[in-house]
Amino acid sequence: xxxxxxxxxxxxxxxxxxxxxxxxxxxxxxxxxxxxxxxxxxxxxxxxxxxxxxxxxxxxxxxxxxxxxxxxxxxxxxxxxxxxxxxxxxxxxxxxxxxxxxxxxxxxxxxxxxxxxxxxxxxxxxxxxxxxxxxxxxxxxxxxxxxxxxxxxxxxxxxxxxxxxxxxxxxxxxxxxxxxxxxxxxxxxxxxxxxxxxxxxxxxxxxxxxxxxxx
Length: 215
Fold this sequence. Notes:
Strand order of the largest sheet: 3-2-5-11-8-9
Number of strands: 13
Radius of gyration: 18 Å
Mean pLDDT: 81
Helix content: 10-25%
Distance between the termini: 40 Å
């Protein structure tokens, strides 16, 4: 099921790029983004990449996680809409025979890029509440290096004009993935659109029509 969901999300992103078949699309660029080195407790707020790192063995304490924030004021997401977080992968280092996952979870949004490490810990209260309730309904897992995530549930439950996401890497071996940050022209973005109807989905399964003079 998870693999099928990831394929569908990639398909929807491709549909948006082609600009047909999915109705009106709202795009939101990330307003803030940082990554935290969990080993040194250092916050990196002026960087071109967002790191998600997990290491095993002797370097098991070397972990990095990224946090992204969006301003969603004026965003009207309907019950029938889908919200997708799209990330641009800058670099990946992994073992092919390992279980490599990127996990997304909701965060509090009472922070800015100059906040301290302790401020980010305080903003993890929504995440801790979900864990205590054994509720993983808002947790999304991606096996394709975390390029796309379905964040529909989080957006529909969001209160206020901001929403934040925590991204972490999980693996049984060393795994590192870097995403383009909000400082980049191809940084994280949200896509909100109507869920495509069956007719539009079927249209993308057809082979392209080549001109008669094509080689």
